[in-house]
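hiii so um. not sure if this is the right channel but i have a protein structure encoded as tokens and i wanna go backwards to a sequence. like what aa goes where. can anyone help
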């Protein structure tokens, strides 16, 4: 029977006892990894699919065993304790900051699967006996495996370092951001950016202005088109690169520019960079002497993007039959770049 999972799984959350390993650790069993489990985790990691743990166990004992099996490094924000697994799943989802419907929970106990599903109805669940099917299911096979995909877990680990430093910092939030030495690099898309650009249109929901998904070929067309600009941006700081974290597609007409798509990764919103790319486009449109319009469509998950537009002084001018709202900015007030970010345009 084929697994019925939603497309676009971003994180697999594993139980441990009789799921990752055979046996029950707290009962003193001499547990052993199930066949192929380590290889499956490695492949998921290479595909850019995050992984975590939700297990009822003693934390120190379970982590010691995971290190012994040399798989502990795959798991972000592991939840190993005796509280309900629905609570663990909620903590993982909040820490990673992705939609609950992009998580897949794997467990050998139907009761645990049902308990999680009763609290988080949009989550994907899978009985552990079917773990060997994971690598061949379409929801876990991304269209492209980009350099950013391969580094995704490491970038989250860098985020954890930033978070730990921020929690111990005694000054204001802006003073902390100044210590990060952030650089925001804006450029027009090159061919080697297109796979990541397509991935952003597929994966990003919260900060996606329209919910549109563009293929590699469509993005490549826009890259060459004299009537369009396709911007990409990257963010770096003293810990390393966040990768390509935003794109914008701008249609250029004789009288106006029109932002057809604006996407920013939710991973960087806490860094105060959400409107930097938008402000750059506003500056460029003003220098060109053009009006600036933008498309927005409510997808129930992108309210933050609408707030970003309104914060940048965009106003609704019309509503289309297909649910799109047309926004306009008169470009009389353009937000300055945050003082703690060095914006580089190439």
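sure thing!! here u go:
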């Amino acid at each position: 029977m084929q697994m019925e999972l939603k497309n676009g799984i971003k994180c697999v959350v594993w139980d441990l006892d009789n799921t990752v390993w055979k046996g029950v650790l707290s009962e003193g069993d001499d547990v052993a990894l199930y066949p192929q489990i380590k290889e499956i985790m490695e492949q998921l990691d290479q595909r850019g699919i995050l992984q975590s743990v939700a297990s009822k166990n003693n934390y120190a004992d379970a982590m010691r065993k995971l290190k012994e099996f040399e798989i502990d490094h795959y798991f972000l924000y592991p939840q190993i304790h005796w509280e309900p697994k629905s609570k663990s799943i909620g903590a993982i989802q909040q820490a990673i900051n992705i939609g609950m419907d992009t998580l897949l929970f794997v467990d050998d106990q139907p009761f645990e699967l049902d308990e999680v599903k009763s609290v988080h109805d949009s989550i994907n669940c899978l009985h552990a006996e079917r773990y060997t099917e994971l690598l061949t299911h379409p929801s876990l096979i991304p269209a492209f495996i980009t350099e950013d995909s391969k580094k995704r877990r490491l970038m989250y680990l860098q985020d954890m370092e930033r978070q730990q430093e921020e929690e111990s910092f005694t000054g204001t939030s802006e003073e902390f951001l100044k210590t990060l030495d952030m650089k925001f690099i804006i450029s027009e898309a090159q061919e080697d950016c297109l796979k990541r650009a397509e991935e952003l249109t597929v994966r990003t929901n919260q900060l996606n202005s329209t919910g549109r998904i563009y293929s590699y070929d469509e993005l490549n067309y826009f890259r060459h088109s004299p009537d369009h600009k396709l911007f990409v941006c990257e963010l770096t700081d003293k810990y390393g690169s966040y990768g390509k974290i935003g794109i914008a597609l701008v249609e250029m007409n004789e009288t106006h520019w029109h932002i057809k798509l604006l996407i920013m990764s939710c991973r960087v919103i806490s860094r105060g960079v959400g409107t930097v790319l938008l402000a750059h486009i506003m500056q460029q449109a003003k220098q060109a002497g053009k009006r600036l319009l933008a498309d927005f469509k409510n997808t129930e998950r992108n309210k933050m993007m609408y707030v970003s537009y309104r914060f940048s002084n965009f106003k609704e001018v019309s509503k289309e039959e297909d649910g799109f709202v047309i926004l306009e900015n008169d470009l009389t007030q353009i937000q300055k770049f945050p003082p703690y970010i060095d914006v580089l345009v190439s």
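oh and The chain has a mean pLDDT of 92.
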